[in-house]
Amino acid sequence: MDKSDGASNHHSDLVTFGVNDPEDPVNWSSVKKLFNTSILCVLAFTSVFGSSSYAPGQGQIMKQYHVSVDVASLGLSFYVLGFAMGPLICPLSEFRGRKLPYMISWPLMIASIAPSAFAKNVVVILLFRFFTGCCAACALNNGSGAISDVYHNNPPAQGKGVSFCPLSGPCFGSLVGFFVAASGWHGLWVVRVHLILSAACWPLVFMLKETHGPTLLRRRARALRAQGHANAYSHEEIEPSKPRDIIQNHLLRPAKMFIHEPICQGAGIWISLAYGIVYFFFEVYPVIFITQHNIPFRLCGLMFLPIVAGMFVLIAGYQPLTRLFARLPLPGIVPQGKVLAPLESDLKLVISACVGVPISLFWLGWTSGRETHWIAPALAGVVFGYSMVAIFICFIGYMTRIYKIYSASSSAANTCIRSIVAAGFPVATHRLLDAMGTKWGLSLFGFLSFGMLPIPLIFIRYGDELRARSRYAREADVLIARLSARQDEEKTNVEHLDSLSSKGQEQKQETSSV
């Protein structure tokens, strides 16, 4: 233990994790890691499931509550807008642990779903849809921190867990929603299904294990003090965070990073577009497959399965695909003789995704008419699903490796922006389709995404320069270097104390033998 000055001006024994400490989440067994991560993924899946399961019931809600399609679509938009509240909720996990926010937000989410599932007023439905999205934001955003605690040195594992379940959840939500809405029950049964699923998952919250290192060390210090070690304190207890730090680190810093950091801006633009198009699909797919291809209403949700299949292809083949694209030559982009850093080399995979998005949109748009078989537009979803998950994993992983200890702030900025952008897509969809039709409406986003293709190319060519100019990347490197030096010093002190202790014991043994 290291000796430090506490707030009460006395020496404290600093409580830390050992090298192979079994209580450190990084050192958990593979089974324990997988179990905890699986729960996090199920909770994230359930939280976003309710966003899209609502969409198939919009037609019935329009008839039962006598509202326009734009008003009915707000139920989807408000839920997604609630996700933007995640950066305001997640700071709690940095001070009270990862589990407590789940313990608070999950029952609140269930309590918010209930009024919207049985309300007789559309205003109440929309209001509580927003509250539900705010509560669901915890599982959607807090899970990435918990997974990072466990797989600290494995960014691909973090990216897979963070991306697949939250992105596939809306697709399955829409699939179930169409079957429920087709049954002829009350339009709000699409919300009641989410209520049942959320209540069924509530016991999983109690099964979660705490992964936040400072919280675990604080508990260990308290246990040691209860056992008589009066000077045992964790770092968080010796230097507690102040309210000003919460505002600065978790509210102001994400905004500053998005405003001043080109890497955050470029990645945020691409992720926001891909995320928004997903919710655009929940409104445009019924037009394409039900209205224009005469697919039975209850089967329309099956058209989202190709998107899930594309996601799975990327998740399953992520490692070999990353190695394959890392060897891809880019003449004209990478100067001859220049050796790319691993950060930019691994980012080459996202080029295929950024090309795949406009291809899938043009494909879907120009096969959406009655003159083509329905399988043609459905298969476009495979390309889009692959591209969307690749964009999430590659860009989020890129920012995580650049900003390191500030990666939570870059993620918070990204979450807020993409949620606000995505919330506008469902409301704008029907006006866009009325004005341009499915072919040119989808082509509009195809041209937009094609125009954004230079972003990853700029990152790959000028990534080292952007990182060198980044204030937050430099600060993160300096802080990590200081932390590493401090840990080495603490380790040296501990080894020195251990050696003195062992010498003292040897002298006592010699004295007693004499």
TrEMBL record:
The keyword Transmembrane helix applies. GO terms for cellular component: plasma membrane. It comes from the Eukaryota. It is found in: Cell membrane. One of its GO terms (molecular function) is transmembrane transporter activity. Residues 488-498, 505-514 have a biased composition (Basic and acidic residues). Residues 488-514 are annotated as: Disordered. The keyword NAD does not apply. InterPro entries: MFS (IPR011701), MFS_trans_sf (IPR036259). The chain crosses the membrane at residues 34-55, 67-89, 109-140, 161-182, 188-208, 263-282, 302-326, 347-366, 378-399, 440-462. Keywords: Cell membrane, Membrane, Transmembrane, Transmembrane helix, Transport. It is a multi-pass membrane protein. This is MFS general substrate transporter. It comes from Multifurca ochricompacta. The lineage of its organism: Eukaryota, Fungi, Dikarya, Basidiomycota, Agaricomycotina.
